[in-house]
Amino acid sequence: MSMTKFVVISVNENPQYLFYLPLTIWAWRKFGWTPIVMCSGPQGIHFLAAIKHSLNPDMWRVGPIDGYGTDTTAQVSRLYAACLYGPDNDYLMTSDVDMLPLSDYWKFDPEKITVWGHDLTGFQHMPICYIGMKRTRWIEVMGLYSHRYNELIKRDLDDMPNAKSSDSVKRWVVDQDLITDRINSVTFEKDFVARGTLPNGYPVGRVDRSAWSLEHPQMIDCHMLRDIYSNPDHLAKTMLLLYKVWPDEDFTWFTDYVKEFNILCK
Questions:
Q1: Poorest-confidence range of 33-47, 130-144, 186-200, 245-259?
Q2: Distance, CA of 266 to CA of 124 (rounded, Å)
Q3: What is the DSSP string of 144-195?
């Protein structure tokens, strides 16, 4: 039986994150992954623009969930994508909407839980970029014995005090707190793929907005620049990256989208 590779990303109504959706979806498709998008919050004009340029992504609505902000529910929702209907042997991997894949880096044994970059957190958190396993394994690890993922999200958030913390940093890592605890508590075989760090402390092969450079022997992914739609310098840097990785592509669709999104944000 063939196996479909899904990458699970999420968004809420924040236009700074919504903006990345079409480009991130496009890039994952180029490398043979089918994106699943978990969407929390109201679907305003920015959302509609992003969806239009994403060419009919597989979208799933999250919440609202009483007591929790859309940022929190969007983040953790990636861990519940296995609730969606599909073959048991489908493979699901989590990622961020502002993390652009630049190569076909993600190799795995489907019989194992694979965590890429655990070394980047000092072997503390399991980084949400990237964790992968078969659908059936996700169901077992996360206790997803229902298709009602909103109820399951609330079930787990209610057991996590930091999900309602006034400290935004604690709330921001609730998804990683949760999946780290769940993976550590199971005995399934795991594969920890070390990423390694550069002398500047950033991951090997990552073009990062805080240390922007295209001089990597291998480019794996990109933590994208902020405000690409309103900052001409950031757009220019992004276009140089895109044409370096995909020199034969026509990115007119993307520059048209940037213009449209910028108008909506004014």
A1: 33-47
A2: 41
A3: --SS-HHHHHHHHHTT-GGGG-S-HHHHHTHHHHHHHHHHHT--S-EEEE--
Look up residue 112 and give its two tokens. Answer: 């194992």
Give the other-Cβ count within 10 Å of 140's Cβ: 16
What tokens were used for 265? 């944000």
Report the alpha-carbon distance of residue 239 to residue 96 in Å, rounded: 20
Contact 40, 69 (CB under 8 A): no
Please give the model's pTM, rounded to 2 decimal places.
0.96
| Nearest residue to 37 via CA among 14, 15, 8, 66 | 8
Q: How large is the average pLDDT for residues 209-226?
A: 96
The confidence score (pLDDT) of residue 204 equals 97
Identify the pLDDT of residue 2.
78
Contact 84, 60 (CB under 8 A): yes
What whole-number distance in Å separates Cα of residue 158 and Cα of residue 90?
29
Please tell me what DSSP assigns to residue 82: G
143: left (phi > 0), else alpha (psi -120 to 50), else beta?
left
Query: Phi then psi for 46, rounded to 5 degrees?
Result: -65, -40
> Tell me: the pLDDT tens digits for 125-151?
999 999 999 999 999 999 999 999 999
Confidence of residue 85 (pLDDT cuts 50, 70, 90): confident
CA–CA distance from 242 to each of 15, 103, 106, 108 (Å)?
21, 12, 19, 26
At residue 1, the pLDDT reads: 60
Q: Angle at CA 223, nearest 5°, toward 217 and 226?
A: 135
Cβ-Cβ contacts under 8 Å for 44 (sequence gap 6 or more): 13
